[in-house]
Amino acid sequence: MSESLQIVNNRSGHSTTALLLGSGELGKEVAIELMRLGVTVVACDRYDQAPAMQVAQKKAVINMRDPQSLNDLIVKVNPDFIIPEIEAISTETLLKLEKEGYNVVPSAYAANMTMNREAIRELAAEQLQLPTSPYFFASSIEEIKEQIHTVGYPCVMKPVMSSSGRGQSVLKSDQDIEKSFKAACSDGRGGIDRVIVEGFINFDREITLLTVSAVDGLHFCKPIGHHQVNGDYRESWQPEELSEEVMMEAKRLASSVVTALGGYGIFGVELFICGDKVLFSELSPRPHDTGMVTLISQDLSEFALHVRALLGLPIGEIGFIGPSASAALVFEGEGEVLRYGGLVEALNEGPHTQLRIFGKPELSGERRLGVCLCRENTVDKALECVKRMRENITFEAQSAPPPVQVEESRAEPKALDEEKEPTA
Ligand SMILES: Nc1ncnc2c1ncn2[C@@H]1O[C@H](COP(=O)(O)OP(=O)(O)OP(=O)(O)O)[C@@H](O)[C@H]1O
Ligand SMILES: [Mg+2]
Known about the structure:
Elements: E1 17-21, H1 25-36, E2 40-45, E3 58-61, H2 67-77, E4 81-84, H3 91-99, H4 108-114, H5 117-127, E5 135-138, H6 141-147, E6 155-159, E7 169-171, H7 177-187, E8 195-199, E9 205-214, E10 217-220, E11 224-229, E12 232-238, H8 244-261, E13 265-274, E14 277-284, H9 294-297, H10 302-310, E15 324-335, E16 337-341, H11 343-347, E17 353-357, E18 363-375, H12 379-392, E19 394-398, E20 414-415
Helix pairs in contact: 1-10, 2-3, 3-4
C-alpha cells in the first residue's frame, strides 16, 4: 500500500469494508478490532449465526470452498480488505482476484501456500532450507510402504489439507499404515487422498512465535508455549522462556518464512524446540488459536496486531503486561440450547481473570466453545488458575428450545441481500 490509509464511513455509499472469510472465535475478535477502527465488517461462513456474524454489521452464508460462490460474493461486496480467517477456502479464487486488483491480506499467496502442507513444507524445507522433521508425501498405501523407512517409526501421518489435528495419527509399525491412511483420507479436506508422513519429533517444548509483518517492520510477541491433545490446543501460556540462542534461531526461522510469504498481518509460526535445536513445523497467516492468551497478556492482542498490520498501520512496541495462560473450553454434546454455568466461581479463581464464550449456536460432538484467561505472577500460577477456572465451568447442551423466548435486543446483522442499493 503506497498511500497511507484513510478510513471512510459513508451511510449511503461505500464505507471502508473488510470481508472476513471465516467467522469463528478468532474471526470474532478480528471483527471487533476492525470495528474499533471504523471498518465495516462483512462476516462470512458456511453456517448462520457464526461467532463473528454476531458482532459484524453484515453477514453472508456461503460455501467458501466453491470458487463461483466465493468469486460472486467478493465481487458483490467489493471489499477494501479480504481477510481469510480459516484454511478451507478456494485460494485459487483469491489468487485470481488478487491479480485483478483485490486486496487479500496478508496475501493470496500466503493463504494458498499454508492451506496445503505440501506447499508450505516445500517452501520451508526445500527452498528456504529451514530445519523440519524428516518427511515424505504419498498418495497410496504402496507409496507409503516404499518410503516409510526414510522417516522410521514412530511417525505422524496427516492429510495434506486439514487442521486442528483432523485425520492425524501416530504410527508405531507397518500394521498401522492402512488404518491411518484410511483415517487421513476420510478426514482430509478437498477430497484429495494425499498425506504427509513425518518422523515423530520428541520435542521438549512446542511454541507459537507470533510474528507481525507491518509497515514499520517485523515484530515478535514473546514465545507462547502450548499443550495439544490429538492435534488440538488445550492450554497455552506466555512467555515460554527460551535461551537467547534458541530465541534467535526461532526468530530466524520465523522471519525467513514470513518474509517469503509476504504481505502485512500476523503469522502464528509453530516451532518444535529440541534442546538447543529449533524445527519449523507449520504456520498460520492469521491469528493463531494458541495466541488467544494475548487477550490478557499484551496491550495489543494478536487480533489487534493483525488488524493494525493489515490496514497498513504501524505497530510500534508490543506491550507485554505479565505472565498469562489460556485454557480452551472444549465440550461435547448435541443440541441448540447451550448453557454455561459456574462463571462467578471461575472468575473468582484469580485477581486477573477473563472469559470468552464464543456464542456458537449449536453443538454436535466435540467443539471449542470458549476460553479461560488468567494473568498471574508466574506462568505456572497462571496455568494452574486457568485449569481451575475451566473445572468450575459447567456445561449442558439440550435439543429442546428454551421455554422463554426473549426478544432480540439489537437488530440482527443484515444479510447482504437485504442491503439497500446505494443511492446515486
Ligand atoms: N512430527 C511431529 N512429531 C511430534 N508431534 C507432532 C508432529 N507433528 C505434529 N505433532 C503434534 O500434533 C500437533 C498438531 O500438528 P499440526 O500443527 O501439524 O496439525 P494441524 O492439524 O495443522 O493443527 P492446527 O491446525 O491446530 O495447528 C502439533 O502441535 C504437535 O503437538
Ligand atoms: Mg498446528
